[in-house]
Amino acid sequence: MKKCFLYSFSFGLLACVFLFFSANFITYKLLHNKVPSYIFYIICISLPFISMSSCLNGYFTALRKNVKNAIARVFEQFVKMIATFYLISLAMPNELEYMCLALVLGEAVSEIASFLFSFTLYVIQKSKYNRHKNTVKKNYMKSIFEITLPVSITSYIRSGLSALKQLLIPLRLEKFGMTCNDAISTYGLINGMTMPVLMFPEVIINSFSGLLVPEFTYYYTKKDYNKISFIISKIFRITLMFSVAIIGLFLFYSSKISFFIYNNYECAMYLKLLCPLLLFMYLDSIVDNILKGLNEQLGVMKCNILDLFVSIFCIYFLLPIFGISGYVFVIFLSELLNSSISIIQLHRITHFKIDFINWIFKPFCFVILSYILTEFIIRANCNSPIEFILKLFIFFGFYFLFLLFFKKIV
Questions:
Q1: Rounded to an integer, what distance in angstroms lies between the CA atom of residue 183 and that of residue 194?
Q2: Band of the pLDDT at 252, cuts 50, 70, 90?
Q3: Which of 8, 128, 171, 263 supports an S-S bond with 51, CB 3.0-4.6 Å?
């Protein structure tokens, strides 16, 4: 762990120095001076702590102490909320620049606090192992570099391409004929408002997807491929049935969701348009963690890099011609390509099969029936959030009952 800490801190510090000296270039050349450069200086401070927090996250995951990871994340979010709300309240009378500063500073404070909290948990956990010290001396640096260097290099490439992609979108929308403000506003409507709502239910999937890495690694080292196939089938069935339910939610109630969250209907169209992708987006995070557990982390990275290359190519050539419609097409292409390649990789290793009828088609039928029954029972307009939440409980209740009733076929 000492060597891992040294490795993490060194690369975190390297990233910090790189961002520090490139802050002015990013501000003036890439962001058209829309964001002050000192924002990046604040981000620099948190980078070594984020790096070392990842190291601690891997430590607890390897020991199957994921409860401690969960506690640390809850603590981080709590600190982030308190710090951000307080800083925003101080910045409220001032310009938007100070609001941005408050958000970034709140993020930095939470990252540092999260690391200190996780490190405290690590020290407590480590004391249990000090009673049984191993006298065998072994240099782990070679093993660490054999794993981390290839992953790091591909990860840096992926991060760079991802940053280029995000910067390129508003620039190419301007080429379509939009003003800079309109391009950023439309891009923000999809990425800043619609996508977070669509991805919010993924919190439930993420709560257990991180646990898959050590579990699949355990069975992989034992070469228990029957157990691996059994677990994959079970996870796919649960994830797909959950995804179908959430697709139904956004498909039928996108207008109400948009209104109650943002007090307008701007996101409703994009929620309805993009929700079918959730079937692939939710499944992709599961598949990526399974592949990492099966020692295919480089394959995951290569897939992500290919996806980014294709996305950037399409963004560059399609957005000036088709505008925001071209960007929506790129989102569909990106998600379908990424998840398809990942599933093919997993199938090549494990030879599992997806039961399309029982895991996708029948749940979709149940969602439609649940919606019809819900609308038949509650015909009110549901103008208050409480009424709407009650309606959703009935909708999901019917869906769950259908799954229970037809358990022999699903």
A1: 16
A2: very high
A3: 8
**Dist. CA 40–CA 239, nearest whole Å:** 38
Report residue 33: phi and psi, to 5°.
Answer: 60, 25
Does this model's pTM top 0.70? My answer is: yes
Q: Which amino acid is at 399?
A: Y
CA-CA distance, 28 to 299, in Å (whole number)? 36
| DSSP for residue 2 | H
DSSP letter for 201, please. T
Task: Judge whether residue 401 has pLDDT over 70.
Answer: yes
One-letter amino acid for residue 49 of the chain: F
User: Measured at the alpha carbon of residue 74, what is the angle toward residues 70 and 80, in degrees to the nearest 5?
Assistant: 145
For residue 84, what are its two tokens? 């951000």
- Residues 263/271, Cβ–Cβ less than 8 Å: no
* φ/ψ of residue 152, rounded to 5: -65, -45
DSSP assignment of 291-312, as one string?
HHHTT-HHHHHHHHHHHHHHHH
**Please, are residues 109 and 101 in contact by the beta-carbon 8 Å criterion?**
no
